[in-house]
Amino acid sequence: MRFEPDLLRMNDGTAVKTAAQMEQRRQELLALLEEHAYGAFPAAVPVRGTIVNESARACSGDARLCDIEIACDFGKESFVFPVKLFLPNTNGKKPLLVLINFSKDPYCEYVPVEEIVDNGFALAYLYYGDITVDDGDFSKGAARFFPRTGSGRDPGKIGIWAWGVSRAVDYLETLEWVDEKRLALIGHSRLGKTALWCAANDMRFQYVCSNDSGCMGAAYRGTWHAGGETVSSIARVFPYWFCENFQKYKEAPGTAPFDQHLLLACIAPRKLLVNSAALDAWADPVSEQYACVGASPAWEAYGKRGYLGSEKPYGTDEGCLQGDIAYYKRRGVHFLGRRDWLNFMAFIG
After folding, report:
1. Cβ contact 179:95 at 8 Å
2. d(Cα 307, Cα 317) in Å, to the nearest integer?
3. Which residue in 47, 105, 316, 317 has its CB near the most CB atoms, within 10 A?
4. pLDDT per residue as tens digits for the range 169-202
């Protein structure tokens, strides 16, 4: 299968053959995606973290729960948002799973906190609404610190949520028990899109797991399947998730100069798992698998294993967790559940 645009062809036509060239190409891809899809990734600012409350009785006493306030300094003003941190009561450095989610409650149906802790993982939990609201209002939360300039490249809400995740990590990575070689970012649905864009820009994440991220996430639009979300529909219903330039493709999606294998490629040479659900036609699971195939040459250019799975569509509860870019399709509907977490934890190891 031929994937367009050509991942291994630089803007000047040079073929990418080395890791150094792939790193140059990665910068070109980030610039392309900023210009036409997600907007410029907001700059880092000074960050302070404060543990405001702590309990040793979380998860039946197997974990410490820390309520943390992350303060981002913008000159005379600060933007503050909370993070909940579950830390297993065991010795040594811990792999840290960073989850941005839809509920204020970390014990919601999407997150098997106790099982995560029992498997030896720490969990940092962020509620996306604490960073900025999920609508077209850019005057609330962190969004008010990134005023609209009319450039067409101002970050949409996906970019601002992603920025918030990176600012939380500015503090979390300073904690002595964090295993920096096993720092993972996880997101589901629109927050799967957020996780991919965040990790594309933030190289500290050594593992990325997107779940049912679909259109403008992990789904390659060049192989769109009936029932899947389209650029036209997402640009019409959720224009504020993206930069203003993205609206150019609402009526002419075929003219967009990018596709999602390029986004996945920006995560190379780190490890990426794309997770799908068999009955989630809206997220187009087959096209999510194809995006992994199309992105694999980026890992290979870095001398990594790339995608080792099948190029034929997987059936239900099938996939390949080997390789540095992996894919799995579980049974069921659009959801973030226990089976997904077991895949994530097995992938990270």
Report:
1. yes
2. 18
3. 47
4. 999 999 999 999 999 999 999 999 999 999 999 9
pLDDT at 188: 98
- The gap between the terminal CA atoms of the chain, to the nearest Å, is 32
In angstroms, the CA 296 to CA 312 distance is 15
The string of pLDDT tens digits covering residues 276-304 is 999 999 999 999 999 999 999 999 999 99
Instruction: Read off the tokens for 271.
Output: 């490890």
What pLDDT does 144 receive? 98
**Percentage, residues of the chain above pLDDT 70:** 100
**Strand-pair category, 178-188 with 271-277:** unpaired
| Helix/strand/coil (H/E/C) assignment for every residue in the chain | CCCCCCCCECCCCCECCCHHHHHHHHHHHHHHHHHHHHCCCCCCCCEEEEEEEEEEEEHHHCEEEEEEEEEEEECCEEEEEEEEEEEECCCCCEEEEEEEECCCCCCCCCCCHHHHHHCCCEEEEEEHHHCCCCCCCCCCHHHHHCCCCCCCCCCCHHHHHHHHHHHHHHHHCCCCCEEEEEEEEEEECHHHHHHHHHHHHCCCCCEEEEECCCCCCCCCHHHCCCCCCCHHHHHHHCHHHCCHHHHHHCCCHHHCCCCHHHHHHCCCCCEEEEEEECCCHHHCHHHHHHHHHHHHHHHHHCCCCCECCCCCCCCCCEEECCECEEEEEECCCCCCCHHHHHHHHHHHC
Q: Which residue shows structure tokens 């990594």?
A: 304
pLDDT tens digits for range 49-86: 999 999 999 999 999 999 999 999 999 999 999 999 99
State the chain's mean pLDDT as an integer. 97
pLDDT of residue 266: 98
Question: Is the backbone of residue 277 left (phi > 0), alpha (psi -120 to 50) or beta?
Answer: beta
